[in-house]
Write a structure and sequence with these properties.
This protein is an alpha/beta fold. About 35% of the residues lie in helices and about 20% in strands.
Length: about 240
């Protein structure tokens, strides 16, 4: 499997019109080299660690401006991809540049309120229902989404993930995870870290009280209990 990943990456190329300009990139560092590298790294992880196959049905929650969708399009030959995001210009770009080239890729705007990323959003993330049927997807992934969502929102999204994920399906989710070791490292290296999460709210820690969604770290216990509540196992 590792050899297959290497071969795929070796032959992958980015067409210029599939890379957004720096000023449009809002996920990770806003430069095209970072955009390309991170997208490929995530797809490699999905193949290597999540056993992603090119014929599967995939959902990306928070697809941004296509950072991961673009390299996935080179791998997902007979499967399909659905992605949604709350940032309008990201969805517009993906619809115009990616969906028109790859007919098995579809992008939707979710007009959800988020103080940091969509302050004029109409809907609450804690009540949002994913626009897909039950048990629709083999694989679901979220990269740096729960790092910008409050607990009630996270729990609703986990409930929706459970609903639309097929039995035996897999999910890849990233967190800022807080535990005893994290606390010690942050305290010890406080001057070096841009993120310190000094605002403690019990289950979670905020970087900025005035705009909570800027960055949120969750207690490891809360994450494990939430997974159990929504019948999701972890490893």
């Amino acid at each position: 499997m590792i050899f297959a990943v290497y071969q795929w990456k070796k032959h992958f190329k980015y067409d210029d019109d599939l890379v957004p300009p720096n000023e449009r990139i809002f996920c990770g560092q806003a430069d095209t080299d970072n955009f390309k590298e991170h997208g490929q790294v995530y797809v490699e992880r999905f193949i290597r660690h999540c056993h992603l196959k090119p014929n599967e049905k995939i959902l990306e929650v928070g697809c941004g401006i296509g950072r991961i969708a673009i390299p996935l399009a080179q791998y997902l030959k007979t499967g399909s991809y659905e992605g949604f995001d709350i940032v309008p210009h990201g969805i517009e770009w993906c619809q115009q540049k990616v969906a028109t080239r790859y007919s098995n890729f579809n992008f939707q705007l979710a007009d959800i309120y988020n103080k940091a990323y969509n302050p004029n959003g109409k809907f609450s993330a804690s009540e949002y229902r994913f626009p897909y049927q039950n048990e629709s997807f083999d694989f679901i992934f979220l990269t740096s989404i729960f790092t910008h969502m409050l607990p009630n929102d996270v729990e609703n999204y986990l409930s929706e993930i459970e609903r639309v994920l097929k039995k035996g399906g897999r999910c890849f989710i990233t967190f800022f995870l807080w535990n005893e070791k994290t606390g010690k490292l942050v305290t010890h290296q406080k001057r070096k870290n841009k993120l310190t999460f000094q605002n403690d709210f019990g289950q979670y820690h905020l970087q900025d009280r005035s705009t909570p969604e800027i960055a949120i770290a969750y207690e490891e216990k809360f994450v494990k209990e939430s997974y159990k509540k929504y019948n999701l196992s972890y490893y």
